[in-house]
Design brief:
Blueprint lengths: L21 E2 L5 H6 L8 E5 L8 E6 L7 E5 L4 E5 L4 E4 L14 E6 L7 E5 L13 E5 L7 E4 L17 E3 L7 E5 L4 E5 L7 E2 L26 E7 L11 E6 L6 E4 L7 E2 L8 E8 L4 E7 L12 E5 L4 E4 L14 E7 L2 E9 L9 E4 L7 E2 L1 E3 L5 E3 L1 E4 L28 E3 L7 E4 L4 E4 L11 E5 L9 E5 L8 E5 L4 E4 L14 E10 L2 E11 L7 E4 L7 E2 L17 E3 L6 E3 L7 E3 L7 E2 L9 E3 L7 E5 L2 E5 L7 E2 L10 E6 L7 E6 L10 E5 L7 E2 L3 E10 L9 E8 L2 E7 L7 E2 L14 E3 L7 E4 L5 E6 L1
Parallel strand pairs: 29-33
Antiparallel strand pairs: 1-2, 2-59, 3-4, 4-5, 5-6, 7-8, 8-9, 9-10, 11-12, 12-13, 13-14, 15-16, 16-17, 17-18, 19-20, 20-21, 21-22, 23-24, 24-25, 25-26, 27-28, 30-31, 31-32, 32-33, 34-35, 35-36, 37-38, 38-39, 39-40, 41-42, 42-43, 43-44, 45-46, 46-47, 47-48, 49-50, 50-51, 51-52, 53-54, 54-55, ...
């Protein structure tokens, strides 16, 4: 999953009950006064359940306490599994706006000496323009309930190529004050001797790696050195309280992939006889037999990989054996290997996954004889039929089919893709889990595989919500109070916040950047998106509150994408006119529900658009500090006389239900390279002039909900910085005063894409996150 706040970059490929409500503490009196109004407004927040939705890059079992397991995601933070509810508990909701990059977790380390200790290596991007903050080690002594931060002098790349490799952060199993961290970007190997409070570079380790995906792109997404990848301990060479003597380090250097130290990291040697030509993705040490296993691939992943091998090192004799289920020398090997695990109860039992195999499906391999022979999770028949050793229950996340009915040998749902973390429970040979680009699957009868039985896979991602939310709407009528548009997994009609559903269909989009409903005819809803395979349309309309959809009969000439997030499409108040601002084509209007389109006049291509919520003839647009008005249903637009508005940065604007010509606008940026106003403004004359709210230091997104009891103006919601305080705010008096409704423990990182209130329930707010799904909140 790839999403960059402020730059609107979005993903490369797509492939229980709702999250337990989280009680929020009221803001302090000081914070509330600074925000414009003294008082307390405790809220309860939770997720509108989707279940998963993004790349689970790592699953880590504690090696000494049964049931203690963590998961990491590329942009949505880390989670701990609650053994009672079998739901994942989010651990990074306290991360704030300015440190939003600390929700990209490149590695997790759970302490087998003191299981209360857990560490996260956090930092989403290595590109300063995408993530200005440096990386950090987040450390907890209470299983992630509270955290302390150790700043690092470099970036880590939790959502960069190679993010499924590792784990890069590990704890010495004998002396748990010692941690090692493998770092990308040429920064080498680092070590802490004080439980992660400080780190220093291991200067005796001299190979920082040299694999760069695209050397011609030094400042881009693929231009970073993958670096030092993983540290693995032979814990037999230490004892309680003493540093482990022998440890291995894997490196992204195809000629020198493995090093060893036998003196607790003081000196290092290249392990003799090692294989070359591939990148080591995962290393696992068998502490009973003394074997080191490696899964390798020719690329960093997670989206590619066409060759690879699995190797077994007898550390007593330094003898290497290639144990690949299909060796790289075979023409049948068209994939690398990544997810690797051993059964700690029976160490001769191994499992490994293809790093990625898009067609027809990824493969899990299993061996019960130390890699001498393997069986596959599925085999191909002579007529493209597949014989399966598993079945899959996706009732907890029925969208995992992507509404597809592919021809054999493809199947829906897939076994998975980007399967870089496969883990057998160290205390239960029957229990295993693995992450995919969309969810976690697992089973409780894994050993049935070995006797010819069927392994019963099911979704194990309940509580883990990892979608990047691009838009939310809440119509004033209909069965659903909430509709969401998402990256990677399309979007949803949420009729039950406690239950996942299928995604929008007819057409099916893998990205839905914008939705709108007709204010005076709210059963009519429009959406635009980028279609999945089998669809070509970028536009859909519903006249029955989203129960069914109809794709567009045509599109504006040149359309290459749906358009800008949250503001690419608008429908008139009466539902008869639609204005669409797609990518690659002019802003266009339709008066026949998308059957035909005509280019609007007077607007730059790509300008965000909105409709007036009272007057069906009025539409608004905005571009580079200029507000535009149409009074003829979007046929023609003219620039208004408004001045002093943001010319750069994210700008979000909305018209107010029930009030013609009333527009709120939030946006701008404080980046030195692009100085521009940054705040919140209101117009009551259809955009001819705007007045700034002086209390709003940084305005980012605004929405409206049902008015407070006794009030006539809708409640206003915003994610903004107001009087020096960053948070989610509500105003019940048209912006004269504001109350913060979240607190510092529940900030959800970056929340600048979309927000709305519920027009039927006073106080309810819905807002999008960049990796933690759709959040809804109600006053206590």
């Amino acid at each position: 999953m790839t999403h960059v706040p402020h730059l609107s970059r979005r993903g490369l490929l797509a492939a229980g009950a709702a999250a337990a409500a989280l009680p929020l503490l009221a803001p302090s009196a000081a914070s509330a006064r600074e925000a414009g109004k003294a008082g307390r407004t405790p809220y309860t927040f939770g997720n509108a359940e989707i279940v998963g939705g993004g790349f689970v890059t790592g699953i880590v079992f504690n090696q000494s306490e049964p049931g203690l397991v963590y998961a990491r995601t590329d942009i949505g933070g880390a989670y701990r599994l609650d053994t009672a509810s079998r739901r994942w508990i989010p651990l990074n909701d306290w991360v704030g706006w300015d440190e939003y990059g600390h929700t990209g977790i490149i590695s997790i380390a759970t302490d087998e000496v003191d299981p209360d200790r857990v560490y996260l290596a956090a930092g989403t991007y290595t590109l300063p323009d995408w993530d200005p903050s440096m990386a950090a080690i987040l450390r907890s002594t209470d299983r992630g309930r509270t955290w302390k931060t150790t700043p690092l002098p470099f970036r880590l790349g939790g959502n960069m190529p190679g993010r499924g490799i590792g784990e890069r952060l590990v704890i010495d199993p004998n002396r748990n004050s010692i941690l090692y961290l493998g770092v990308r970007g040429g920064h080498g190997l680092w070590r802490s001797t004080d439980h992660g409070k400080t780190f220093e570079k291991v200067t005796s380790f001299t190979n920082p790696g040299n694999v760069v995906i695209d050397p011609t792109d030094p400042d881009g997404y693929n231009g970073d050195n993958l670096g030092v990848l993983q540290v693995v301990f032979d814990k037999r060479t230490g004892r309680a309280g003493k540093a482990t003597r022998t440890l291995y380090v894997t490196v992204a250097d195809k000629d020198n992939i493995l090093y060893r130290s036998t003196d607790a990291g003081a000196t290092w040697e290249r392990v003799p006889g090692q294989p070359t030509g591939f990148i080591p993705h995962h290393a696992v040490f068998d502490h009973v037999g003394g074997y080191l296993y490696l899964a390798t691939s020719d690329t960093a992943g997670p989206y590619d990989g066409s060759k690879g091998d699995v190797w077994k090192l007898d550390t007593a004799t330094d003898t290497w054996t290639r144990i690949s289920p299909v060796p790289s020398t075979s023409d049948d090997n068209q994939y690398g290997y990544s997810g690797l695990t051993i059964d700690r109860q029976n160490p001769d039992t191994l499992m490994v996954s293809t790093q990625v195999k898009w067609w027809p499906d990824c493969i899990l391999f299993r061996s019960t004889d130390g890699g001498a022979s393997w069986t596959r999770a599925w085999d191909m028949g002579t007529n493209s039929e597949r014989t399966l050793r598993y079945d899959i229950d996706i009732s907890a996340a029925p969208w995992l089919t992507w509404n597809a009915s592919p021809s054999l040998p493809e199947m829906a749902p897939k076994l998975g893709w980007m399967m870089e973390s496969v883990q057998i429970d160290p205390f239960d040979s029957d229990h295993f889990m693995y992450g995919t680009g969309a969810t976690i699957y697992g089973a409780n009868n894994l050993t049935d595989w070995d006797s010819g039985g069927t392994v019963h896979l099911s979704v194990r991602a309940q509580g883990l919500e990892e979608t990047a939310v691009l838009c939310v709407i809440s119509p004033p009528a209909g069965a659903a109070h909430l509709f969401s548009g998402l990256g990677d997994v399309g979007g949803f009609r949420h009729t039950d916040f406690h239950k996942a559903s299928k995604m929008f269909d007819s057409p099916t989009f893998h990205i839905t950047p914008a939705l709108d409903y007709a204010e005076l005819a709210p059963h009519t809803i429009v959406r635009v998106g980028n279609p999945t395979s089998g669809w070509t349309q970028h536009f859909g309309i519903s006249t029955d509150s989203g129960a069914t959809w109809t794709p567009s009969g045509s599109e504006p000439s040149g359309v290459t994408g749906a358009g800008v997030e949250d503001q690419a499409v608008a429908i008139s108040a009466d539902g008869r006119r639609i204005v669409w601002s797609p990518a690659g084509a002019p802003v266009s209007w339709s008066d026949d529900h998308g059957a035909t389109w005509t280019a609007s006049k007077g607007l730059p291509a790509g300008a965000p658009v909105r409709s007036d919520r009272v007057n069906p003839a009025k539409f608004y647009a905005y571009d580079s500090g200029v507000c535009y008005l149409s009074t003829d249903g979007g046929k023609t637009f003219k620039a208004t006389a408004a001045t002093g508005l943001p010319t750069a940065g994210n700008v979000r604007f909305k018209a107010v239900p029930g009030h013609e010509g009333d527009i709120w606008l939030a946006g701008g940026t404080n980046k030195p390279a692009t100085p521009t106003p940054y705040g919140m403004w209101r117009s009551t004359d259809s955009g001819s002039s705007f007045t700034r709210f002086e209390a709003v230091d940084e305005g980012d997104v605004v929405g409206f909900g049902k008015a407070a009891p006794g009030a006539t103006y809708p409640a206003v919601y915003t994610s903004s910085k107001i009087d020096g305080v960053r948070g989610i705010f509500r105003s019940d008096d048209a912006g004269r005063t504001w109350i913060r409704i979240n607190d510092d423990r529940h900030q959800y990182a970056w929340t600048g894409n979309t927000i709305t209130g519920d027009p039927r329930i006073y106080g309810r707010v819905y807002f999008g996150t960049n990796g933690r799904g759709v959040i809804y909140g109600d006053p206590k």
